[in-house]
Write the structure tokens for this entry.
Amino acid sequence: MQNDVRHLREVKALSQGDLAKQLGVSRQTVNAIETGRYLPSLPLALAIGRFFGRAIEEVFHVDG
Amino acid sequence: MSTGRWFSRDRWFTAERGWVIAAVKAAVTVVVMLVWHAFFLYGLIVMSLVGLRALMPKSETVSVLLGVPVDERWESISTRAWALAGQVIFIGLLVTLVAMQVGQTQGWVGYSTPYALVSAALAVAYLGGVVFYRWRQ
């Protein structure tokens, strides 16, 4: 799985810490999601999509 | 996401509740008439937990060690670490059980029953967990 979380966060000029606070998770978790080391649960993925005003499949997509 | 629950069935056995173990250990020590040892042990365990609690706001790793993962990723890390620890304990128990059984048959010092019982308890707990979570999810 790949995701556009880093890009979307940078467009909003947010730090990882800012996004983490908004989502109720740790900064390290945001970093792990951005780098693809951690695949978020469905509720968290939905919260990320909702935060950026995107559908979940616009933020997370399969490789390639 | 954020998981600030004080109690969870999934992680009832955590360092933060170590004071219960400390109290039991202290009570046992009092029963065998080692009152000062009991106070010392209880104090040592409780103080270490108080120290960890003080560090908790500064470290997510300490939060996990105290049984309060800050979010779902840390909860997953904790679950996987417990699974790893469980496997290591189980393998250790089986090795010890075999060694004790060999020891008994060869006339060395060894008593295998407690290890057999604990191994059986672990296996039953695992089977029970599979059946319970299969029913629940």
In short: The interface with chain B takes residues 23-26, 28-29, 32, 38, 40-41, 43-44, 47 of chain A (CB under 8 Å). The domain at 2-58 of chain A is CATH 1.10.260.40 (434 Repressor (Amino-terminal Domain)). Chain A has one domain: 2-58.
